Amino acid sequence: MKKSMQKENLIIFLKNFAMTITVITIVVILVFLTQGWTLDPKGSFERNGLVQFFSSVTGATVEIGDQKLAEKTNTKTLLSAGTHEFKIWKEGYETWYRKTQVKEGEILWLNYARLIPKQKRIDSFLDIQNLKTAKVLPNKEKILIAQEDNKKSIKFSLINLQNDTPNIKELGYLNVLQENNSKENSISNVEIQEISRNNNRFIFTYNQNGSRHWLIGDVNNPSKFIDISKDFNLNNIAKIEAKNNEASILYIQDGQNLKELNVDSLTLSANILTDIETFTSRENIIESVQKKTNSENNTTYSIHIRRDNKNMLIKDNIPTAPTIALGRYYNESYVHVAIKDEIHIYKSSNWSELMRLYKKIKANQDITSLNINDESRLLAIKTNSSTLMHDLETKETFTLDNNSPNKPIWIDNFHLANVTNNSLSIVDFDGANKHSLMPSLENMPIVLSGNDKFLYTLSTNSNGNISLLRLRMILE
Per the UniProt record, which residue ranges are transmembrane (predicted)? Predict the structure, then answer.
């Protein structure tokens, strides 16, 4: 009886042991597979990379070298580490091409293939006279425009992009006629600077009689304008940015002083910062460039981050005025600083921690502007002759050719639009897959509809006025 029980216990032990070994083996195999390890035909283990394919038009064919994938987009596959050529195409569309490197155990996201129709179907709408400025609402459903009316008033209207036939709705007028009747009453440099993230308020500027006027308007109450310059006796405004989604609180740079304006209560704060050259903001974060001149008349600049009424120094003793940009990507905060022909990138896990120097990027010339995409992953570094594009995800830097965008406009997180000689083109962030699309005017909106179906812009029509143009991006 005792030997029988021992034998039975041994069998149970061996079964449990075998089951445990089997589970461990399966888990190890799964871990190896998820890490990209496979067995090649020679019986050796090799580590692959995973490639994810997405395209603006689903159901497109993916080619890797001379091989077609069985599944169409959106799809994925494992590939050996190394450089591969990728093509994504579909009947009626231009082929999208990319040559890039697959890395061991990493995911390569080719999730930005925008397929462009071979035949460009362009529709024209509206006939807009004396258009001065236009800006797309953040929700991309409408365009706010301002027209000059006999140099006595400015008319504001909304172009609705949601209907099959876009239409225009008049909002109201801003009277700009001065009390005297001098010829200097004409206005110039009309510009819609910013629209609140909730699509209701807008910041608007124009020049008249040698003065720059700054106002805030309300889309839902177009007759109500607040003349910030006049009402608060601010005669040296250099820049205004909304602090919150509603633009109910504004940051105002008046000369070298930064203040807060509460639009609802019409109250202006004391100086938040002084001696500033410029600033930029992101929610409750303010990044400022401060200017100091010593007794020997030597000027230096320093960069600061302000949060919760506390200032943190990023860099000081800079000999020339830097250009700055803020971003936050994958739970890390970034401060991009352009000093002459070099970019210094600082980062930390949050805005309250000390920023450390993360990377330096050398440009070919002095840097004229910085431009970040919506998700803060890609930094466009503009010089007079070209554009550098730095990718925080892959840590790569690309140089776009001499035909790169003069004033880059992000139409999504991976594509730039550019207008040269009244012609609109788009290009991938690394300079690949450039396409000439349609007529357009410089300094006018370029907007891709939320469903990627249409691309809109404004251009001169046969009457010499302005029309809204719509290019069909997805064929039906």
Answer: 12-33
pLDDT at 407 over 50: yes
Given the DSSP bridges, would you call strands 249-254 and 257-262 parallel, antiparallel or unpaired? antiparallel
Q: Which residue has the tokens 């449990």?
A: 16
Please give the full DSSP string across 371-440, using - where no structure is assigned.
EE-TTS-EEEEE-SS-EEEEETTTTEEEEE-TTS-SS-EESSSSEEEEEETTEEEEEETTS-S-EEEEE-
pLDDT digits (tens, 9 = 90+) for 382-399: 988 888 999 999 899 998
Same fold? 37-113, 282-403: no
SS3 264: coil
Phi, psi (rounded to 5 degrees) for 229: -60, -50
Look at residue 187 in the predicted model and tell me its pLDDT. Answer: 82
Structure-block tokens of residue 393? 């995800």
CATH fold label, 37-113? Immunoglobulin-like (2.60.40)
282-403: CATH topology? Methylamine Dehydrogenase; Chain H (2.130.10)
Angle, vertex CA 90, rays to CA 86 and CA 95, nearest 5: 45
Neighbours of 256 (CB within 10 A): 16
Question: Of 410, 407, 416, which is closest to residue 441 (Cα–Cα)?
Answer: 407
- The answer to whether residues 147 and 155 touch, using CB atoms and an 8 Å cutoff, is yes
Closest CA to 275 of 294, 255, 256: 256
As a whole number of angstroms, the distance between CA 353 and CA 370 comes to 24
- Contacts of residue 340, defined as CB under 8 A and 6 or more positions apart, other chains included, come to 320, 366, 367
Kindly give the pairing relationship between strand 369-372 and strand 356-362: unpaired
72-105 pLDDT tens trace: 999 999 999 999 999 999 999 999 999 999 999 8
Q: Domain spans of the chain?
A: 37-113, 282-403
In Å, how far are 23, 210, 211, 254, 257 from 238, measured between CA atoms?
67, 15, 12, 6, 10
Q: In terms of residues, how long is the chain?
A: 476
Q: Which residues contact 466 (CB under 8 A, 6 or more apart)?
A: 126, 127, 128, 129, 131, 441, 458, 459, 460
- Its pTM stands at 0.86
Helix (H) or strand (E) holding 7: helix 2-34
Structural contact between residues 347 and 328, judged by C-beta atoms closer than 8 angstroms: no
Token digits of residue 233: 């006796």
Q: Cis (ω within 30 of 0) for the bond into 16?
A: no
